[in-house]
Design a protein that fits this description.
The complex is a heterodimer of chains A (852) and B (180). Chain A has three domains: 178 residues, Aldehyde oxidase/xanthine dehydrogenase, molybdopterin binding domain (Aldehyde Oxidoreductase, domain 4, 2-Layer Sandwich); 264 residues, Aldehyde Oxidoreductase, domain 3, CATH 3.90.1170; 324 residues, Aldehyde oxidase/xanthine dehydrogenase, molybdopterin binding domain (Aldehyde Oxidoreductase, domain 4), CATH 3.30.365.10. Helix content of chain A is 33%, strand content 22%. Chain A is built from 25 helices and 30 strands. In chain A, the strands form eight sheets. A seven-stranded mixed β-sheet of chain A has the order 3-5-1-13-10-11-12, with helices on both faces. In chain A, strands 7-17-16-15-8 form a five-stranded mixed β-sheet, with helices on both faces. In chain A, helix 8 packs parallel to helix 11 and helix 15 packs parallel to helix 24. Chain B has 180 residues and is an alpha+beta fold. The longest helix of chain B has 27 residues. At the A-B interface, helix 1 and helix 23 of A face helix 3, helix 4, helix 5 and helix 6 of B. The structure holds FE2/S2 (inorganic) cluster (2 copies).
Chain lengths: 852, 180
């Protein structure tokens, strides 16, 4: 272990590329982190929700009279009272062929999954609120539950959303290349069905919100665990302006200031985005329009926003993990906002673990029938996939199950040279919890593809390594484009990671280990998996998903130098464990030639930090987030140098900065400090307050954006007596370009792999055949511990193509690579082809033929 | 079941305990957990609540030197006890050796789990100053972390062992030198 890198070092050494210790740990390790549950203003009220015990039922009566009289209870709102204060939630991201049901903030007529909120109690403390929840009487008339996709599509099944086509919310088809030709030509077709089970993100900190009301102005400040503060801000504002469009329009018309600001902003947007707007596919809204008037709801919200005088401020402090689920805005959060706004009182709700398991976001219950067309020599021709997603009842906001199918459409052929690809997806509603993005939301395209490649390899008598090697796109073919659109350049170095991984495996030793294991009543097997991930992806990636999407892929940032010489950077990211504060300070300190201690990183405050529709998500923190930190810092440095050059009577080109001193090259003794330059510029420019130097930038990435890739290797050891699986070796060979902080990248990779191990061997949301949920505590939903997760080796390759910075994202990959590597390893060990994701001990024993 | 406010007031118990070296006496609701008292009444928010049903270990504190899940323990049960929380380990902003070790090993990501792991490590190393990797993993298996995959936390404990044992060597050398 090396301890030399600390943040007190100065730029002479360069922070980028070193495992600099974390700035965040100064507060975390001594118990001074500040999470949302730690903020407790005087007099805050607490919310607790009344939830449905039924998966599907009609609410016939709700009686809150006893609850209202309970000690400490300030108010009880029924679902319909909340819904009167709020608009329905419209689909924000319209996806072609997908109907996204409009829904109310609370369920006042029909409940659609266990835990669906029907009323909320506001009391002086959470225990008192919970006591009163027990006293709310709700009569339900149970409806037939829809427990799974098989039942959902039967004609006799209950229909969950009246305006949908049965329970099918989407039925989409995409074809790339000549798929029939590919399958006719091929000598072999391998087809298999794969099933994955429902998982849940499970950050250790649940979600939470404190809606704080300023007693004087009634301005709302929302302290939240959100990954995307601006999304919460706008939806909170839009949902709580429940008034007719006419009234909104009149208010807008008389408010000259707002009108002018809006027209100006709109004009600028239209000018900037004319091209992208033209690309938007009108078909995207069509399914939605046919089913119901989502446009009307959007319009009502939009006009309400135009009329609103005040928008909430959203602040995030420290956030205890998210893995996608905290990017979603939940109905509970919006309820709390509506309640605080109506009552003019601050209200807090901290989700408890049972609520989080039941209702805090679930993912990945999917079924695939996948066919691979290839020749006997291993040459791939085409890939065909028929997929079904169990959507649960309510669509996630802003992104739910539908985004997964959109990603599959682009990703599924992976880093292989396919001539054709065909995908059919059905998204089916059931009476289960909401599906949200979970770390690499599209991941199972890799799981099924990599699993099927192993099956095909066995069928044609090739090794899994050789079959991959034969078809994977390598330097000889690059640059080229995927059959599904996105451009591939040298950063798509998947094949290099595969070759390197194969080098690092000793196959002879493995054979000896396998033989030894047999003696002990164990089985050992090895599995490989390779993927590529757009992080941030090439410039045409967004448009490949859906035309016009590229317009969302930017990152705003701001750099300043204050009058005391401190450097203050403003990011649109909302960190929740990824160590942004450290990595951004590394990058920025290097640009400015100062110590990391001289740099402040500001995040999570919509009054001060830049706008973003994504916040932190999609492995964009390094490429885009650090990218804009670098580009803005560079410009501000230029401004500083130009003033310093005057002071030093030198040419700006001759200026260097080292250890925070700005000086003529080679003469550090005669230098000036940032504070000196700031003082000079301040008086020269006549600045009275605010930053002395400043630059704001919209960063869209440089060069080809690029790919993040990896090959995972898992070795499993299966005890045939217990069915228990250990992992004697787990290796990740990854390439995310230039690494800013290796220890932090390793942590991201290992954490992702750990979640993949959990997904395969331990974790499962257990809904029974009546859609009742059995996994509502950590006694039933098993998060792996230090005993189950092995040491994970991480081998880095750093492909640099010369783009500015050239650091690519790495947050999601661990979770993408692990399930197929493990599934392949178990298959190898047992000599059977595993087609399900979930492999608990009893299933392992069944597969091994030990249990009948 | 509803209670009048008089009935509720009658259900208050008085608890005396020492928290991070400070003696304190409080009136609490008998249902109140030790975690809630530490966080809400004493403002010691370094102790975290991850599950409130005794599995995740984020709420671990030391009660009489033994690790305890403060979400499951009632405040009333802590009457007369000596409690140490994460805030009680460091001297202001100066990290204790175990906290320093976790800093050096970059053990955590979101760090929501960190108070529990650190308190469990304090208890582990008090009992077994030189644990094997397997013993560390076994002992820490009562704490959940969703971010790290545990390797960096195990490395943090190993680093703590190094720091503590070098400190012990130093202090025993000093003792020898001063003839004790
Ligand atoms: S909060 Fe106490 S064990 Fe999880
Ligand atoms: S560091 Fe996030 S839960 Fe452990």
């Amino acid at each position: 272990m090396t301890f030399e890198a600390t943040n007190a070092q100065t730029s002479g050494l360069g922070f980028t590329g070193q495992s600099v210790k974390r700035v965040e740990d100064d507060r975390f390790l001594v118990g001074e982190g500040r999470f949302v549950a730690d903020i407790n203003p005087e007099g805050v009220l607490h919310a607790a929700f009344v939830r449905s015990p039924y998966p599907h039922a009609r609410v016939t009566r709700i009686d809150v009279s006893t609850a209202r009289r309970m000690p400490g209870v300030v108010r009880v709102f029924t679902g319909s009272e909340i819904n009167e204060l709020t608009n329905r939630v419209p689909p924000l991201a319209s996806i072609k062929g997908v109907y996204s049901p409009l829904y109310t903030i609370m369920s006042d007529d029909v409940v659609r999954h266990v835990g669906d909120p029907v009323a909320v109690v506001i009391a002086e403390s959470r225990p008192l609120a919970e006591d009163a929840v027990e006293q709310v009487v709700v009569d339900y008339d149970p409806l037939e539950p829809v427990p799974d996709v098989d039942r959902a599509v039967e004609p006799s099944a209950a229909q969950i959303w009246p305006k949908a086509d049965g329970n099918v919310l989407a039925d989409t088809t995409d074809t790339f290349g000549d798929i029939n030709d590919a399958f006719t030509k091929a000598e072999v077709v391998v087809t298999e069905r794969f099933d994955s089970h429902r998982l849940t993100n499970q950050p250790m900190e649940t979600k939470g919100i404190l809606a704080e009301v300023d007693p004087a102005t009634r301005h709302l400040t929302l302290h939240s665990t959100t990954q995307a503060p601006n999304v919460l801000r706008w939806i909170a504002a839009g949902i709580t302006v429940n008034q007719g469009p006419g009234r909104s329009l009149r208010q807008f018309a008389v408010n000259k200031k707002r009108r002018k600001a809006f027209v100006g902003a709109a004009r600028e947007f239209l000018k900037d985005q004319r091209e992208e707007l033209r690309k938007q596919d009108p078909a995207a809204m069509k399914t939605q329009r046919k089913a119901e008037n989502a446009m009307g709801t959007l319009m009502r919200m939009g006009l309400g926003l135009l009329a609103a005088d005040d928008f909430p401020t959203v602040k995030t402090a420290d956030i205890g993990g998210g893995f996608g689920c905290k990017g979603a805005v939940t109905r509970e959060e919006l309820t709390v906002v509506a309640v605080a706004k109506t009552m003019g009182r601050s209200v807090q709700w901290i989700e408890d673990r049972v609520e989080n398991l039941t209702n805090g976001g679930q993912a990945r219950e999917e079924r695939f029938t996948l066919s691979l067309a290839l020749d006997r020599d291993g040459t791939f021709h085409g890939l065909r996939c028929d997929a079904v997603i169990d959507h649960g009842a309510y669509p996630g906001f802003p992104f739910g199950a539908a985004i997964t199918s959109l990603m599959w459409k682009v990703y599924m052929p992976g880093p292989y040279d396919f001539k054709a690809f065909h995908l059919e997806t059905r998204i089916v509603a059931t009476n289960k919890g909401t599906v949200v993005p979970y770390r690499g939301p599209w991941a199972h395209e890799t799981w099924v593809r990599e699993r099927l490649i192993d099956i095909a390899a066995e069928k044609i008598g090739m090794t899994p390594g050789d079959l991959r090697r034969k078809n994977m796109i390598g330097d000889d073919k690059l640059p080229m484009s995927m059959i599904t659109g996105p451009d591939l350049d040298a950063t798509m170095s998947a094949k290099k990671t595969l070759e390197r991984a194969l080098e690092l495996i000793d196959m002879d030793q493995l054979d000896r280990d396998k033989a030894d294991a047999k003696q002990r009543g164990h089985r050992i097997g090895l599995g490989l998996a390779t993927y590529h991930e757009a992080a941030p992806g090439p410039p045409n990636f967004g448009d490949s998903l859906q035309p016009g999407n590229a317009m969302l892929l930017f990152e705003d940032g701001r750099a300043t130098v204050e009058e005391d010489g401190r450097i203050v950077m403003y990011t649109a990211q909302s960190p929740h464990g990824q160590s942004h504060q450290t990595t951004y300070a590394q990058v920025v300190a290097d640009e400015f030639g100062v110590a990391m201690d001289d740099v402040d990183i500001v995040w999570g405050d919509t009054d001060r930090t830049p706008f973003s529709v994504i916040g932190t998500g999609g492995s964009r923190g390094a490429p885009m987030g650090a990218g804009v930190m670098r580009s803005t810092a560079r410009e501000v440095r230029r401004q500083v140098v130009s003033v310093a050059a005057d002071m030093l009577e030198a040419n700006p080109d001759d200026i260097e900065i080292s250890d925070g001193t700005i000086h003529v090259a080679g003469v550090p003794a005669r230098g000036v400090s940032y504070a000196d330059v700031a003082a000079k510029a301040k008086s020269e420019k006549g600045i009275t307050s605010g930053p002395v130097f400043e630059h704001v930038d919209r960063y869209t990435g440089t060069g080809n954006g690029g790919w993040s890739v990896a090959t995972h290797v898992a070795v499993v050891d299966i005890d045939l007596e217990t069915g228990f699986v250990t992992i004697p070796r787990y290796l990740v060979v990854e390439d995310c370009g230039r690494i800013i902080n290796p220890a932090i990248v390793d942590g991201q990779v290992r954490g992702g792999v750990a979640q993949g191990i959990g997904a395969v061997f331990y974790e499962k949301m257990n809904y029974d055949e009546s859609a009742n949920l059995a996994s509502t505590t950590y006694m039933d939903y098993l998060i792996p511990t230090a005993m189950e997760i092995p040491a994970i080796e991480v081998d880095h390759m750093e492909t640099i193509t010369g783009g500015d910075g050239d650091s690519r994202g790495t947050g999601e990959g661990g979770m993408i690579g692990a399930p197929p590597a493990l599934g392949n390893a178990v298959s190898d060990a047992l000599g059977v082809q595993v087609t399900e994701l979930y492999l608990p001990p009893h299933r392992i024993l069944e597969l091994a033929g030990v249990l009948g | 079941m509803t209670h009048t406010s008089e009935e509720l007031a009658a259900m208050i118990v008085s608890v005396s305990m020492t928290v991070n070296g400070n003696a304190t006496t409080l009136d609490v609701d008998p249902r109140c957990s030790l975690a809630d008292t530490l966080r809400d009444s004493l403002g010691l928010t370094g102790t975290h609540l991850g599950c409130e049903h005794g599995v995740c270990g984020a709420c671990t504190v030391l009660v009489g030197g033994e690790p305890a899940r403060s979400c499951l323990m009632l405040t009333a049960q802590a009457d007369g006890c000596e409690i140490v929380t994460i805030e009680g380990l460091s001297d202001g902003d100066t990290r204790s050796p175990i906290q320093e070790a976790m800093y050096q090993a970059m053990s955590f990501q979101c760090a929501f789990c960190s108070p529990g792991f650190i308190m469990s490590t304090v208890a582990l190393l008090a009992e077994n100053p030189n644990p094997t990797e397997r013993e560390i993993r076994e002992e820490l298996s009562g704490n959940l972390c969703r971010c790290t995959g545990y390797q960096s936390i195990v490395a943090g404990v190993e680093t703590a062992v190094e720091i503590l044992s070098s400190q012990n060597i130093l202090s025993s050398q000093n003792k020898e030198r001063s003839g004790q």
